[in-house]
Design goal:
- By secondary structure, the protein is an alpha/beta fold.
- The protein has helices at residues 2-21, 53-67, 87-97, 114-123, 136-148, 166-187, and strands at 38-42, 46-47, 50-51, 74-77, 105-108, 129-134, 152-157.
- The chain is built from 6 helices and 7 strands, in the order αβββαβαβαβαβα.
- α1 packs across α6 (166-187), α4 (114-123) packs across α5 and α5 runs parallel beside α6 (166-187).
Amino acid sequence: IVLIVIILVPVIINFYVILSTKNRIVSGNSELLTDIDYIVILGAGIRRGKPSPMLEDRLKTGISLYNNDISNKILITGDHMNDDYDEVTVMKNYLLEHGIPEEDIITDNYGISTYDSIYRVKNVYKSNKVVIVSQRYHLYRALFLSDNLDLESYGVEANLRYYYGQWYREIREILARNKDFIKGMGEG
């Protein structure tokens, strides 16, 4: 019985996080995307000073939302905790190279985790309503954390291609959803 409970609880939490947020993953032209404070692009790794494929797709999606007047500000959040790894500068440079004016880019160097990023969007940048850009598998958790931090948020998925190793990320995400479910419940 204990083994069954140990297996079932994480599975139930995983499905709860998905089911409680899936209706807020919308297309870039949704009527829900009005009065948006920021288009929030979550970091996703860099390789040799360039965005990883996942991060590049998030940036492309964010640029599209910006160009469609969803918001006039893009908040990029990622890891820059040491000098030899700087997701945020790579993200900013990509946006600049693709025509986003520097004054419309807000940088957050302390987005070490999804929780940290969403917490800072709400509490440091004082956001009330945002659109979060990430891949679908990751949006469920980001939206769940937003709920627990009283941040109105909608997700736009940036799945523009197949990502090698996605099965690994899906399994890892089940564990991350459980971790952030527990962490998020302390906020709610």
